[in-house]
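Hi U.,

Before I forget, here's the chain from the pilot set. I'm dumping it here mostly so it's searchable later in email.
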Amino acid sequence: MTDDTGQYRGNLRYAVDIVMCIDATASMGPVLDEVKNSALSFPARLKAEMAQKRKAISQFRLKVIAFRDFADFADDAMEESDFFAIPDDLAQFESFVRGLTPEGGGDAPESGLEALALAIRAPWERGLDRRRHVIVMFTDAPAHPLGDPKARAAHTYPAGLPLDGDALLEEWGYARSQQALMENSAKRLVLFAPDEFPWKDIADEWNMTILFPSAAGQGLEEVEMSEIINTIANSI
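Structure:
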């Protein structure tokens, strides 16, 4: 319930956690700066959008997972931050994002599904009264299937990740999933990715998911970023 100013009444507290999975391979060079700028502007833009909708966030946290390709070069295949509490940790968030550089990647498919798996396993907020857990994927490439032997042989490959797409879907959760790690009423997945495997299949088959198709070498258009922010704001 809201008062005459549109602010929430009572003691309800709203928590929003967002994990940004960012492709940091060489092919993203022409667009990575745009993605980084969008990520850096994200907290202020989401806050402004929420204010326009007369909604308030009690706790807002951001986490970044930058990925490349375990099968190409293992040492920098994944860069993962902790959750940053915004606005208190805004400087640390900005420093992490600015430090991302486009390099590596090898063949066309990248380790995007590993990044998605790590995002699903993030330490999401489980308290407060209402929660929204959002994963945003930025990539211009398809992904290697989970369980790819060359990727799993990498010495930096995270332990215990799902072995295939079906197991990953189980952790995302669906109607009868017994292994779901995501809170069904809280979760959202926003994909800025090519309209091909695996992103098209995920958008078609996973619940609470939306795909904004992109093409290799094309930047993140302003209208697309606005739609992503609106999607998140409208879901809270």
